[in-house]
Design goal:
The structure holds two protein chains of two kinds. Chain A is mainly β. Chain A has three helices and 22 strands. Classes of the chains: A mainly beta, B alpha/beta.
């Protein structure tokens, strides 16, 4: 397959790649760069094979058993006016593999025509595998143009596997709907850390649904969000405990100006040994927090920015 | 020198919390404010720091009228304030908070020194968040460290001893004495604690919003002797002295 050096990456795409995948002209390890539905570059490694799907747009990423310490980069960018991107990526993680997957999507639009990326990712974790999944979503360009990102994620965790998803959307995306579903077998663990910032008239919906089917399986969902301007966020988490398991869901949100946030936790204990907890806190930045930082010499605006930056870090 | 001139503070439009308080904080001195709970000490400290705005009166710092300065400007002018009940921040690390206090990114060595100054083992704390996972004593010590890092002309501490273990307290006393001896800045410490009162250059009592006793430690301290075997000895001393 082609290497990235053979392709020309325009400035907007390079900027997006930098933001979503820390791209500095090259990736160390296996990668595939998707841009406006095409492939800007791809490289497999000895242990990580990236192949195009035959039936749908997208990729099958095969990570060999016992692969240790490798990172695979699968970023996607949309810069073409009016482009509606749909991609199916399946990650097949072999037994005992310990890897990092860096994905993410950036949309840049300036023409007024809406652009969209819909990434449907499936994670198939074999026994004893461990994955850190890092996903950043950004939107750049004209504020008046709709930039829509609708990720769908399905996770299947076999026995003793571990998946940590670190996802962030820190500005510029007009509308997003995130759907994440997971099913866990014995002693599997899922950790999701979500950070979300919306402004102006942006909307963001997050739906998590996790089935804890295995003995001693566990999930920890942590969402931190800031809603500014007239933006609206909705957070829904559903944790279903079907066995001796532990589930924790935590939604912390800061609202500023006219921002709105809904949080809807749902816990279903179908086993007497299920331990499920939900915590949610929504409110403005506490006045005493701002005051403390002002007594350290920060202005009101600097104090608010420091609090938000820390909250979403 | 910080001069408090005829400060009155009214809450709810009419209820006087501070009533015509005037006092002077000389350069390089350690001044203790003491008195019964609810007497107005914390309100006075907050007025000094600009956290509360006086109803009337003036505050002069080294000849400059800072009465109308907001908390940010007051801090930049050189007034630092450690809250009695420190606030917690979800997501802000101790490193970040103390760097904000210092006005620059602190090196590991500087951060280590700042934490050790308040009796904390730096390696265990640098990257921890200033949130609910810290105990009351830990958060209090971080609060004190944040003020010690300010390049302040006047540093105000509101009951710094609260929640602090004996070992850290001894350390804190040493730090206060060092600052006082270096004459780098004036210290105003609100306290009921005998050991803090015993290191003061001057002791000022405040009760019912009014200035009470005021003078050198040697002149005031003996007058606060408690004749009773009670737990809140500071209050008894105050009452005995009236």
């Amino acid at each position: 397959m082609s290497d990235i050096a053979e392709k020309t990456i325009d400035r907007n795409t390079a900027d997006l790649l930098k933001q979503v995948a820390d791209f500095e002209g090259k990736f160390k390890g296996a990668f595939n760069i998707r841009s406006n539905g095409g492939c800007l570059g791809r490289k497999s490694s000895e242990n990580i094979k990236i192949e195009s799907k035959a039936d749908n747009p997208g990729l099958d990423i095969y990570i060999a058993p016992n692969t240790k310490g490798e990172t695979v980069f699968i970023p996607a960018c949309v810069t073409a006016p009016g482009f509606d991107d749909l991609v199916y990526n399946d990650f097949h993680v072999g037994e005992g593999a310990y890897v990092t997957i860096v994905a993410g999507c950036g949309i840049h639009t300036e023409t007024g025509e809406p652009a969209r990326h819909n990434g449907i990712h499936r994670f198939l974790l074999a026994k004893g595998s461990r994955v850190l999944y890092v996903e950043k979503h950004v939107g750049t360009g004209s504020d008046d143009t709709q930039k829509i990102i609708d990720p769908v994620t399905e996770c299947f965790l076999d026995e003793d596997s571990y998946l940590e998803m670190d996802t962030s959307q820190l500005g510029g995306v007009s509308k997003s709907t995130r759907n994440t579903k997971a099913a866990l077998k014995d002693r599997a663990t899922l950790v999701i850390k979500e950070r979300l910032l919306t402004d102006r008239d942006e909307t963001a919906e997050t739906h998590f649904s996790v089935e804890l089917n295995g003995v001693d399986s566990g999930v920890n969902l942590m969402s931190r969000s800031v809603a500014r301007g007239h933006s609206h966020q909705a957070y829904q988490s559903v944790i279903i405990g079907n066995n001796k398991c532990h589930g924790h869901s935590e939604c912390d949100a800061i609202i500023a100006e006219n921002g709105k946030v809904d949080a809807t936790p749902e816990l279903y204990a179908n086993s007497g040994d299920a331990e499920l907890i939900h915590e949610a806190a929504i409110g403005k930045i506490a006045g005493e927090q701002i005051m403390k930082l002002r007594t350290l010499g920060l202005t009101q605006e600097e104090a608010e920015a420091a609090i938000v930056e820390g909250f979403l870090a | 020198m910080l001069e408090i001139k005829n400060i009155t503070f009214e809450a709810d439009g009419s209820r006087k919390i501070l009533d015509d308080i005037s006092l002077t904080i000389p350069d390089g001195k350690l001044i203790c404010l003491t008195g019964p709970n609810g007497g107005g000490k914390t309100t006075l400290a907050k007025v000094m720091a600009g956290v509360l705005t006086q109803t009337s009166g003036q505050i002069i710092l080294n000849g400059q009228d800072i009465s109308s300065l907001d908390p940010t400007e007051r801090a930049k002018a050189g007034v630092a304030f450690a809250f009695q009940q420190p606030v917690r921040f979800k997501g802000i690390s101790i490193r970040k908070l103390l760097s904000l206090a210092a006005g620059r990114a602190l090196s590991d060595e500087e951060l280590k020194a700042a934490l050790e100054n308040v009796g904390m083992v730096a390696e265990q704390y640098m990257e921890r968040q200033v949130d609910t996972h810290l105990s009351g004593g830990e958060i209090k010590r971080i609060e004190i460290a944040s003020v010690l890092l300010r390049d302040a002309k006047v540093a105000i501490f509101d009951e710094p001893e609260a929640g602090i273990d004996l070992w850290s307290f001894n350390n804190l006393i040493r730090v206060f004495e060092e600052i006082r001896d270096s004459r780098k800045c004036s210290l105003v410490i609100i306290s009921h604690q005998e050991r803090i009162l015993s290191i003061a250059d001057e002791i000022i009592t405040i009760q019912n919003g009014k200035l009470g006793l005021s003078g050198t430690r040697d002149s005031i301290f003996p007058r606060l002797i408690c004749k009773n075997d009670c737990t809140d000895r500071g209050i008894c001393r105050m009452e005995a002295a009236q």
